[in-house]
Amino acid sequence: MSDSLASVKLKAEKAYNAAAESFDAEPLAFWERYGPRTIERMGLRRGAQVLDVCCGAGASALPAAQVVGPEGKVIAIDLAGELLKLGQAKAQTAGLQSLEFRRGDMTGLGFPDRHFDSVVCVFGIFFVQDMEAQVAELWRMVRPGGQLAITTWGARFWSPAYELWLEIVRRRRPDLHAAFNPWDRITTTDAVCRLLRDGGAQNVAVEAEDGYQALRTPEDFWTIALGSGLRWTIDQMGAEPAREVKQELLDRLSAGGVVRIETNVIYAIGEKQLGPL
User: Fold this and answer.
1) pLDDT tens digits, residue range 152-161?
2) Residue 142 maps to which CATH number?
3) Helices and strands (H and E) in the chain: how many
């Protein structure tokens, strides 16, 4: 593993372990919205064997386990152990014995070829630089007749609040500002379709869905930041600079009358043809 890839993975792990404390807060309801919608589009059958990578707290793994039932199996994998704990607690409460949460890295899972009926990755494919190679890795584990489902962010990610966040961070802490986010490469249906096809996926169907998350007060967006990958940037600032960034952000959201953010997504499903490949 390259030093840069190891650094990216460590950054994601730290960010989402810290974010776990806010991950299930009401302003982050979109996690629980798009996971089930991904599963609904797949048409999973009872008894299916499913792999969910970058599973978070189980937004897609939990509904998948409900569909496949006790005859099936869902293995849910994430780097962030604190998110896995949240998912495990939810699975236990729901009595989902077929769902197993494991800490792991999607770039090196080691499962055999054609091992799963379905492989799912919701808001996770962009955590690796070589997304095409990662699609190919997930695709190889899909059985003939099975599916690979990838859900990612569409255009105008968390707009308009995210643009304000970037502007404020760039001005106050340019060393922490990211001018380019990895998901920026795949914010159109054409780009997502091309990604899956370049990764070897077949019979690819792609659908965009516009959405939004209401903000009861500007403070809700700060909660979203704390419960997401933005948490890493906040923690790197230190307490007082973070407080200043927060105050400016909330003041500008309030002055602009921002009462919701866009949460547009793109769903993509590839179906592997039957027969030898």
Assistant:
1) 999 999 999 9
2) 3.40.50.150
3) 10, 9
